[in-house]
Amino acid sequence: MADLAAASTLLGQLQTAFSSGDLATCKQLLGRLKLEMTKMPALPPVYQQSANTQQQLELARQVLELAVLLAVRQCDEAAFERNYAQLRVYFSDARGMLPPSGQEGALTGLHLLRLLVANRIAEFHSELEVVPPEVQATPEVAQVVQLEQWLMEGAYNKVLAARASAASDYTRHFLDQLSSTVREEVASCSERAYESLSVADAASVLMLGGEAEVEAYAREHGWEVSGGRIAFHKRGDSADGGADGTAPPAVDLIGHCLNYAREIERIV
Amino acid sequence: MAAAMVAAPPPPTTSAGHVLALLDEDDDALKLHALQLLDASVQDFWFQIASSIGAIEALFEDEEFGHRQLAALVASKVFYHLGDLDDALSYALGAGPLFDVAGTSEYVQTILARCIDTYVEQRVAEAEGHGDAAAPDARLVAIVERLFARCFSDGQYEQAVGVALESRRLDQLEAAITRSADPVKTLKYALDVSQRLVVSRDFRNQVLRLVVNQYEKVAQPDFGAICQCMMVLDDADEVANILFRLLGGSEDEALLAYQIAFDLVDAELQAFMAKVNSRLDTLAPAPAAPAAAEGAAPAEGEQHMETDQPAEAAPAEEEASPFAKRLAVFKTVISGDVPTELERQFLARHNHADLQILKNIRASVEPRNSVCHSATVFANSVMHCGTTVDAFLRENLDWLKKATNWAKFGATAGLGVIHRGNVGKSRAIMAPYLPSAPGGSTPSPYSEGGALYALGLIHTSHGQGVRQFLLDSLRTTQHEVIQHGACLGLGVAALGTGDEEAFEDIKNVLYMDNAVAGEAAGLSLGLLCAGSGTEKAAELLAYAHETQHEKIIRGVAVSLALIQYGREEEAEGMIEQMTSELDPILRYGGMFVIGLAYCGTSNNAAIQKLLHFAVSDVSNDVRRAAVMNLGYVLASTPEQCPKIVSLLAESYNPHVRYGAAMAVGIACAGTGLREAVALLEPLIKDSVDFVQQGALIAMALVLVEQPEARVKPLRAHIDRLYGNKGAEVMTRMGAVMAAGILDCGGRNATIGLRSRSGHFRRTAVLGLTLFSQYWYWYPLSYCIALAVQPSALIGVDASLRAPKAFQVVSNCRASQFAYAAPVKVDDKKDKAKLPTAVLSTTARAKARAAKKSKDAAKDAGAGGEAAKEAGGAEAMETDKPAAAKVAEGEKKEGEEAAVEKKEPEPTSFTADNPARVAPAQRRFISFPEGQRYAPIRAAPSGFVVLRDTQPDAGEAEYLFEEEKPAAAPAAPSTDEAAPAAAPPAAGAGSGDEPPPPEPFEQPGSSLQAERTMSGTEWWRGVTDKGKTEIPGAEATELRSAQWQIERDAPEGVQQQLEQGDKEAEQVEAYRDKQDPDYHPSKEKEG
C-alpha cells in the first residue's frame, strides 16, 4: 500500500515535471517509478489479485504512457519502442481489467506512425490487425491508416500535406521523419525516371524549399549539378538489368532449352 | 464496477514482449526483474524469448552484471526448448547453483541426463588415457557431485551406484554403499550391475575389489557373493582364507562353506579350485588328516563318498577334531568329486531318454550312409550324456560295426560322453579300447585314439586322475590318430589348468607338422591355456604362419580364440593381428577370438567388428564365423540376439544364414526364447541343406528342456526329416543331431553356458565352441558334452549325502514341465526296414522284443514282466518300475484326448530330492516351511546344502544308497553267458550303475571261436574280422577316411560318400553270404 502511495506521489511529480518540460527530472523520476513497479505484484504477467489491483495497473499504465510520450519528446527511438512494448500489454492482455485510457488512441497512432516512418510495413499491418475497432475509429489512428494508404498509392504530395495538419506535437515529430522518407522515395524514382532534371523542377518534385536546398540534397546523393541541371548517374547496380533496356538473353535460353530436350531424349 | 473487475480472473498472457522490453532498460534491477519473470514463463514464451536470446547471452557475458547466473539459466532453458542440448548444458553449467538438480521438470531431467552423459564420456576418455582428453569441467563435476548428494539424501542409492559405475567414480560408489540404509542390498545391486554393464574389464575388477572390501565390512557378510567375486578376480588365497574361517566356525558356517564350495565348483574353473585346495592345505593346522582323506578320495572314487562315508567319519571322530573332519568333507566337494558324483547319480536314475526315438532313427537311416550313421551315434551319446546308459549301443552292436576309421574314433569318444563324470571307473570302462589294454590283439588306432579322447571327456574339468595316463599315452605313441585322441583328451581333461609339462609335450606333437595330430595338438594347447591370454599365443600364431597344413592352421587359430577367452580389451592386439591376416583360416580364428574374448559382454565395439566382417569379408568361412560369434558376445542378453541377427538371417549368402542360426542357438541356448524360435523357423525350411542343418541344431539348443508343448513341432519336423530319403544328407544329419541334443542327458539336462550364480561357465562356452567346429571335423561334435548341465536341484546335508526327506514345491502344473510322452512303436515301419538293415540274431531278438513290448502296451496289466523282458536296460535306467512307466505312458496318451473332461490339475506339486528343475521352471520353485531339512540358501537349482533342524530325529534315510542292491540284479540276464570273460569293471562295480557292454554272440559259423568273446571287446573283434576276412576292407578304410577330413568341397565329399557306400554294400553282401544262418525267409519267422 505504502508502495502504491509512494508511487502515486512520484507519478504526480513526474506529471508536473513532464508538463513543465523538465526532461532530466522526468527521466530520473521515471527510473524510480519503474523500480517501484517491479515491486507491484498485480502487474502483468503475474496479475496477483489484491484489493488495489486496479489502482496498481492504472498507475503502471499512466507511468508507461508518460514514458512513451517522454521518449518522443526526447526523440529517443529505442526508448519509445521499449516503453511502448511495455505499455502494450495494458492495451491488450490487461485491457479487460482497466477502464479505457484516454491516451490509447493517440499512443497507438504514434506507434503505428513510427512503424510507417521506419518503413516497417509488415509490422504495421500486423499491429493494426490487433488494434480493437473502437481504437481504430479514433482520429489519430484513422489518420495514420489514411497516411499509409496514400503512401502505398504514391500520393506523396498528400502525405507531405498531412504534415501541415498534424494533430499534435508528437505527431509532427514523426511526420517530419515521414516527409524525409517520402522524399527519399521520390528521389530514387527520379533517378530512374530522368536522365537529368533542372534544379527548379527538382525543387518542386522533391518539394524542397529552394535551389540551395536542392543542391545540398543533390550532394548528399552524389548527383552532379552543372548549369542548373541535375544529372543522375545511372547507378552501376545492374541488379534489375531489365529496367535499362537490355533484352533478356533469349538466344541463350532457347539454346539451353534445346540442349535440355536433347539430353532428356538421350537419357530416355 | 471496480469490484467486479477486481474479481475478474487474470487474463491469459499472450506475449512476453513487455517483459523482454525490460531487458533493454539501463537499470540492472529492471533487467533482473525481467529475467525473473522470464525464468518463470520460459516454457510458454521460449519462442519469443529465443528472438531476444542475444540480449540474454550478452547479459551472461557481461562481467559487471550481477545476475549472470540467472541469465545463464534462462538461456539454458531457451536452448533446451530449441532442442540444442549442448548449449543448454553449457549455460546450465554457467547457472551454477541456480540450476536445481532436485527439480522434477522435464528440463532438469533432460539436462541432468545430458550432464551425466557428458561427464561419463569425459571420465571414460580420461580413464582410457586418450592423450588429448582433458579433465572434466569443474562445473560439470560440481553438478554431478550435487546429484550424488541428492541421491544420498533421497535414499536413491541404486541410482547413485549406477552413475558412479558409469562415471568410474569409485569414491562415490564406496560412499553409496557405506551410506545406504541397506548396504547388503546395495552391494548386491552394485555387483550385479558391474557384472552386466561395466564394459572395461580393468575397471570391473576394481569395482569387484571394492565390493569385496565393502562386503567384509558389513555386519553379516554374504560370503557366497564375496567368494564369487574373488573367483572372478582369480584370488584363490582370499577365498581359501574365507572358507578356512567358515570351516572353523559354527555348524551353520561350515554348511555355508560347503554351499560356497558347491557354487564355486559349478563354475568349473579347475585351476582356480586347485589353487584354493592347495592354499587350504597350507592353512590347515593338522595337515596329516586332510592329506589322508585326500589320498583316499581319488582312489576310491564315489565309493568313498557313498558307502564309506560313515566308516570314514569314524576315524575322524577318533581324532576328535571336528575341523579336520569338516575339512575332509569339504575337500570332497572342492575337488569336484561329490558334485560330479551326485549329478551323475541324478542323471543315471532319472534318465528318461526315449530309446524308441533312437530305434526309429536307426531303422530309417540306411547304415551305408556314414554321415547319418555317425550322427546317430552322436545322438545316442548326447541323449545319454552322463547317464552311463549304453543300452542302445549294446543292442545294436552289429549296426555299430559299420562305423569305421574316424567314425569309429567318434563312436568310441561317444562312450566317454555317455559315461561323463563317472570319474571313478573311467579307466575300467575304457580299458578294452585303450592302447595298453592287456590281452588286446591288433588294436585299431581309431578306437584307441577315440578312447583317449573319451577319457578326457569323462574327466572334463576333473583331470587329475587321468592326466598322467594321457600324457604317457601321448609320449609312447607315434601314430597320428592316437596322438590326435590323446591331445584332445588331455586338452579337455586339463582344461584351463595351464599345465606346463603337458603343454611342452603337446607342443612337440604340434611341431612334428603332421596334419591330423597337429590339428588336435593346436586345439589342445588352446584348451590347456584357456582364458589365460598367455604370451605363448604369439608363438602359436607364428607357427600357424609357418605350417602348410590347413588343418593345423585351423586348429591353432581356434586355439588362439580359446586362449583369449574372456580377456576382453587385452585381446585387442591379437584380434587386430588376426583379423588383418591374409589367410582366411586365421581370420576365421580371429572371429572366434572376438567372440570368446568378449563372451557375454555385449560389447558394442565387438559386435560392430563382427557385423563388419559378416558383411564385408571375402571368405564365406570368415563370414559364417563372424555371424556365429555374435552369439557368444550376446550370450548374456539372449533376448537381443535374434533382433541383431534377424537381417543376417535373411542374407542371400547361405553361410551367413547358417551363422545367424548358430548365433541364435548359442546365445539363446536353453532359454526357449520365442523370438529365437520365430527366427529359426523359416531357416529350418531353408533351401540350402547346411542352413537347415544349422537351424535344426540351433533350434534344439534353444528348445532343450523346454515344456513339451513347445518342443512338439520340432520333434515332428525331425521325425519327418531323418527318414526322408529325398532330403539332403546334411539336413538329415542335422535332424539326427538335433534329436540327440534335444534330449540331452536323458532329458534331465540343459545346455547351460552360465552357472547357477550367473557367471559364464568357461568349460561350457569352450565346449560349445569346439562343438561348432564339427563343420570341419565331426569328432569335435562330442565336445558338446562339456556344455551339458544337469538341471537338478539336489539337497545335501552336512555329510554331503542327499536326504530323502526333503521336498521342494513347484508352483506350476505338473504336466507343464513333464517329460515327453514316449514315442509309440511304429511296427510297420520297423518291419519294413529291419530285414535290410539288421541281420544278426540280436536284431531278431530285438524284433521279438519290440513286438512283445507292443503287446505289453496293449495289455497294461501284464505289462510289467513283458516290458522287463523287452528291454532289461530300460527297466534299469529308471528308478520307477517299468510297469508303472508303461502304464503311465498309456495314461498320458489317453489323457491327451480327454483332457478337458478331467478335473483341473492342481496348480502346484511337490518334487522329491533330487528334483528335476527345468530352466523355465526355476521361478516356480519354493521351499516349504516345516521340513526337517532347511536350505542354507534358497537357490532354485543346483546344489542346496541343507541344515538338519531335527538332528535328534534319528538316522536319516539317504538317496542313492539303498537302491544299490536293487540295481545290481537289474543287470541284463545275458550276463551269465560269459561270466569268465566279464570285464574288470563289472567285477569291481558296486552295482549302482549298468556295467559296460555285456558279452554278445558273434553271428556266423566262421566266428565260432570268438563266440564267448567279452562284450567289451566287440569292437576289436569287429576290426579283426574285417581285416582277416574281407580283403577289400583295407582299401575301403583308406578311401573312406578321406571323406570326413574336409567338408569344404561338398561335391567331392558326396562322390566319395557314394563310392564308400557302394563298397560297403559289397562288403555287406559278402558278409551276408558268409552267414550260413542267413536266409530272407528266416527274418520273417523271427
What's the SSE blueprint?
The complex is a heterodimer of chains A (268) and B (1086).
Chain A (H helix, E strand, L loop, with lengths): L1 H19 L2 H16 L14 H21 L3 H15 L12 H14 L3 H10 L2 H4 L2 H15 L2 H9 L4 H25 L2 E3 H7 L5 H11 L2 E3 L2 E3 L18 H18 L1
Antiparallel strand pairs in A: 1-3, 2-3
Helix pairs in contact in A: 1-2, 1-3, 2-3, 3-4, 5-6, 5-8, 5-10, 8-9, 9-10, 11-12
Chain B lengths: L1 H6 L9 H6 L5 H24 L1 H9 L6 H15 L2 H10 L11 H22 L10 H17 L2 H10 L3 H10 L3 H15 L3 H17 L5 H11 L2 H12 L3 H16 L3 H14 L4 H13 L1 H5 L2 H10 L3 H13 L2 H14 L4 H10 L5 H14 L7 H5 L1 H4 L4 H14 L7 H5 L14 H14 L5 H13 L3 H14 L6 H12 L3 H14 L7 H11 L3 H14 L8 H8 L4 H14 L6 H13 L3 H14 L6 H6 L8 H14 L6 H11 L4 H15 L4 H15 L6 H14 L1 H4 L1 E3 L10 H11 L15 E3 L1 E5 L10 E4 L16 H11 L3 H18 L4 H8 L1 H6 L4 H16 L11 E4 L2 E2 L8 E2 L6 E3 L6 E7 L15 H4 L16 H5 L29 H12 L3 H11 L6 H25 L5 H6 L1
Parallel strand pairs in B: 3-9
Antiparallel strand pairs in B: 1-2, 3-6, 4-5, 4-7, 8-9
Helix pairs in contact in B: 3-5, 4-5, 5-6, 6-7, 7-8, 8-9, 9-10, 9-11, 10-11, 10-12, 11-12, 12-13, 13-14, 13-15, 14-15, 14-16, 15-20, 17-20, 23-26, 23-44, 26-28, 28-30, 29-30, 30-32, 31-32, 32-34, 33-34, 34-36, 35-36, 36-38, 37-38, 38-40, 40-41, 40-42, 41-42, 42-43, 42-44, 43-44, 47-48, 48-49, ...
Most extensive chain contact? A-B, 28 and 27 residues
CATH architecture of the domain at 1-101 in chain A: Alpha Horseshoe
Question: Can you summarize the main beta sheet of chain A?
Answer: 3 strands, antiparallel
Helix fraction of chain A?
55-70%
Extract low-pLDDT stretches of chain B: 1-7, 286-320, 828-839, 859-901, 962-1054, 1071-1086
- Low-confidence spans of chain A: 236-243
What is the highest CATH level, the class of the domain at 1-101 in chain A? Mainly Alpha
- C-alpha Rg of chain A (nearest Å): 26 Å
Radius of gyration of chain B: 34 Å
Question: What percentage of the residues of chain B does DSSP assign to strands (E)?
Answer: under 5%
Strand order of the largest sheet of chain A: 1-3-2
Secondary-structure class of chain B: mainly alpha
Mean pLDDT over the residues of chain B: 75
Quick one: how many beta strands of chain A? Answer: 3
What percent strand of chain A?
under 5%
